Amino acid sequence: MKSGISEIINGMLLERNFTLPGNTLIYLDGVKNITKLNLSKFSIIFNFKKNPNFKKEEFFTNNFLLKRLTLRRNLELLSDLYTFNLDRLIKDLEMQEFFTAFSNTKVIDIENIQLSQIELIIYMKAYKNCLILKNLTEIIKSMSEQQLKYFEKLLSERQVFYFTNNKSFIKFKNMFKYFVIYDKDKNLDVYIDDENLEAFLNNRIKTEA
Fold first, then answer.
1. I need a labelling partner for 15 at 20 to 30 A (CA). Which of 55, 77, 91, 121 fits?
2. What pTM did the predictor assign?
3. Per-residue confidence in pLDDT tens, the chain, 209 aa
4. CA torsion through residues 128, 129, 131, 137, sign
């Protein structure tokens, strides 16, 4: 199905029952760097800011944590703001060793995949409707069994809109119900759990062996 992007997206957002899970993956064909795109442009194209379900939401990018603050200070601020128990979260995610090693290190100086894991989890705890522009492939692949269970539970309780240009999303397609394919010519295909999506993926988006 192809039509004007605003018409289809807005219709889908407004008509969906947001009390039930129905995560959406938006594949942006030909876009090289999603995190550097103009976020205000995304808001206009997909009308998130005008949609009543998204008025208080923000995009999840590489700038979710404050890079000049330490990891501990970042997480303490977020735990106070979103009222969750930080010690319990670190234990549930089996990240005691990581937190001990990096708690007093500025975020900008931490090069560790576990940083991305914990900021993703906190973002999803904070927002019921999640707008994700950061590449999740390596984050999900690197999760322990316990972390993956925690993430999947949040995923089942949230409405997630995941923007990606990475073909490897096919490996995680079972996490999503709705698929929007937005190509270089600004054409749009929308798929909802049907065989046409499988045909599209098999023909146009092939992962490397």
1. 121
2. 0.79
3. 333 445 555 555 555 555 555 788 888 777 776 665 555 555 555 656 566 666 556 778 878 899 999 999 999 999 999 999 999 999 999 999 999 999 999 999 999 899 999 999 999 999 888 888 888 989 999 999 999 999 999 998 888 888 888 777 777 778 888 887 776 666 667 777 665 666 666 665 554 43
4. positive
Closest C-alpha among 124, 132, 122 to residue 39: 132
What are 135-141's contacts with CB under 8 Å, separation 24+? 135/34, 135/164, 135/166, 136/162, 136/164, 136/172, 137/166, 137/168, 137/169, 137/171, 137/172, 138/113, 139/113, 140/172
Phi and psi, residue 206, nearest 5°: -110, 130
Distance of CA 122 to the CA centre of its chain: 12
> What does DSSP say about strands 129-132 and 59-60: parallel, antiparallel, or unpaired?
parallel
Residues in the chain: 209
Number of H helices, E strands in the chain: 9, 6
Question: Which residues, 6+ apart, have CB-to-CB distance to 170 below 8 Å?
Answer: 201, 205, 207
Residue 62, SS3? coil
Report residue 47 as tokens.
């009308």
Q: Which amino acid is at 115?
A: L
Query: Could you give the CA distance from residue 201 to residue 133 in angstroms, rounded to a whole number?
Result: 21
Q: Are 177 and 21 in contact (CB under 8 A)?
A: yes
